[in-house]
Design goal:
Length: 391
């Protein structure tokens, strides 16, 4: 009796009304997001633009999905073609079945198209994305856990995977097996860490970081493939994917050695992303330029905009002129032009009506105020005798 094992999920799809939400698809989407995020950070550190990795991934991801499905259908054609098979099932990608070899090959074609449109060298872009691809594979392998597929031989280890499902041909599978999906997921994480460390330690460039990822992944894929028991084509006692892993490993190692001899070092940061280089140059020129003096609005224009509309004047009806009233007694002035008690705040003496006489002197015209007295020719008081001070 097995006391410890890894349980398998009872189902790998949730239905949100009529819309099915499949865990396998979510694992792939999470892997793509992680790969683009990490690749963008590495690309910016190398001197590229922030959006370059995402712009090229728009081309690479669809090509990779198509290539991975084609590789699976070609190598496992007995699952979809023949008596009692349904060829349209080959389009059901959500049921699992993506070959990493086809995904990488077709994804490279899509990346080449996107890099050519962007003016970016493909090897430099692949170096920046290599650890992210390994982490994307680590996330995607958990989709096999939800689908209860790609398990290994029976085992009694405490980390064995509990499988309980019915195959399409009606066969029931139940038991504890090696969790090969978990082995490969952990191995991909270690490959990503290895590539990041080697890239910093040896300054890998011109596609060598990507070649290191490919070589390291094929080593782990060889022994996990050896543990699997699902149906596959065999040649000389080895599964087809084992032979592919060997061939790809040899090609990656050869490229790694030749590239280090022919093109040592890393690409120039100013040459890997011309568009980002132009954007940085324009930003630097704008920062160094003196700030532009704001144009002043003429005062006349300001007044014109802030002027309030004038009120239309209405003609008032004419009024009968009033008879002017004589000022109060305490405000009347004396004949000398000032009040008796001073100019301010004092009551003034009532002095009657004033007349202005104008006399010519040697220094000009001088106005003299004389008080008209009652009985005088002007109808006021008579003038004071000479020598007598005014009252």
């Amino acid at each position: 009796m097995d006391l410890a094992y890894i349980p398998s999920p009872s189902r790998g799809v949730l239905h949100l009304g009529p819309i099915p939400l499949r865990a396998y698809a979510f694992c792939i989407i999470i892997g793509v997001v992680v790969a683009v995020w990490l690749g963008s950070r590495r690309w910016v550190a190398r001197g590229g633009g922030r959006h370059t990795v995402g712009d090229i991934a728009v081309w690479a991801v669809p090509f990779g999905l198509v290539g991975g499905r084609l590789y699976h259908v070609i190598t496992d054609n007995q699952l979809y073609f023949g008596e009692g098979k349904h060829p349209l099932d080959a389009l059901k990608i959500w049921e699992g079945g993506l070959g990493i070899w086809g995904a990488i090959a077709f994804g490279a074609v899509g990346a080449w198209i996107g890099a050519r449109r962007r003016g970016v060298p493909l090897p430099a872009w692949a170096d920046a994305l290599a650890p992210g691809i390994a982490l994307a594979q680590a996330c995607g392998r958990w989709g096999n856990w939800f689908n209860q597929e790609l398990y290994g031989r029976p085992t009694t280890l405490p980390w064995g995977l509990k499988i309980d499902k019915t195959l399409p041909n009606g066969e029931v599978v139940s038991g504890i097996y090696h969790p090969t999906f978990l082995y490969e997921s952990i191995w991909c994480v270690l490959v990503a860490l290895l590539v990041i460390w080697a890239d910093k330690r040896f300054t890998l460039g011109h596609g060598r970081a990507f070649a290191l990822y490919v070589a390291a992944y094929t080593v782990g894929r060889f022994w996990t493939e050896w543990l699997r028991i699902d149906e596959a084509h065999r040649f000389f006692g080895l599964r087809l994917n084992d032979w592919v892993a060997i061939a790809v490993f040899i090609g990656a190692v050869v490229y790694l050695v030749l590239s280090a001899r022919l093109r040592p070092g890393r690409e120039d940061p100013d040459e890997i992303d011309p568009q980002a280089t132009r954007e940085r140059a324009e930003a630097a020129a704008a920062a160094e330029a003196p700030p532009a003096t704001p144009r002043r609005t003429p005062l006349r224009a300001v007044r014109r905009r802030t002027r309030r509309p004038r009120r239309r004047r209405t003609r008032r009806p004419s009024r009968t002129p009033r008879t002017p009233r004589s000022p109060p007694e305490h405000t009347r002035r004396s004949r000398w032009g000032r009040s008796r008690h001073g100019r301010r705040g004092r009551p003034q003496l009532p002095l009657g009506r004033l007349t202005l006489l104008e006399s010519r002197r040697s220094n000009g015209y001088v106005r003299e105020a004389r008080a008209a007295r009652p009985g005088s020719g002007a109808g006021g008081r008579p003038p004071c005798p000479e020598g007598e001070p005014p009252a």
